[in-house]
Write a structure and sequence with these properties.
The protein has four helices and seven strands; from the N terminus they run βαβββαβαβαβ. By secondary structure, it is an alpha/beta fold.
């Protein structure tokens, strides 16, 4: 519930460019405003890994998202939110759940977006949200992309 985070607390929010993550950013900024906290908006660029295509070709996973592209997308998402709360931006490279959880170790709250159409048990195993729910050491808020009806 908004208002329950400690004053001057840091709220980490994962941004992947989805509508759900943009809604999570708006919620985190609102929460920071009413609690006197700050927001760390994080995007995680996955490390390039080779995926087998055929014996003649290998494709890399994640290579289409270079640091500048990810940084620009994160900055655009943050700039679209009107807030009086301080917002820092961070782009890191690694596994999304691991990087978000590492940042959350020093935070008071972790906020992630969800599509809002499925229950948590229906989310595919290995998803970032499920991994964060399992391993988070701070409170975690899952924000649906669209308000509940």
């Amino acid at each position: 519930m908004p208002g329950d985070a400690p004053a001057d607390g840091t709220i980490v929010v994962g941004i992947d460019g989805s509508p759900a993550s943009r809604q999570a950013l708006r919620w985190a900024c609102y929460q920071a405003e009413i609690t006197g906290g700050s927001v760390l908006a994080m995007s995680v660029r996955e490390e390039a890994a080779f995926l087998p295509g055929s014996e003649f070709a290998l494709r890399t996973r994640g290579s289409w998202r270079d640091d500048d592209t990810v940084r620009a997308a994160l900055h655009r998402a943050v700039s679209l939110v009107s807030t009086s709360a301080p917002v820092r931006e961070r782009v890191v490279t690694g596994e999304p759940a691991d990087e978000l959880l590492a940042a959350a170790n020093e935070a008071d709250l972790l906020v992630l977006g969800t599509d809002g159409h499925r229950g948590l048990s229906a989310v595919p195993l290995g998803s970032v949200a499920v991994e964060c729910v399992r391993r988070a050491v701070c409170p975690l808020v899952l924000v649906p992309a669209a308000p509940a009806r």
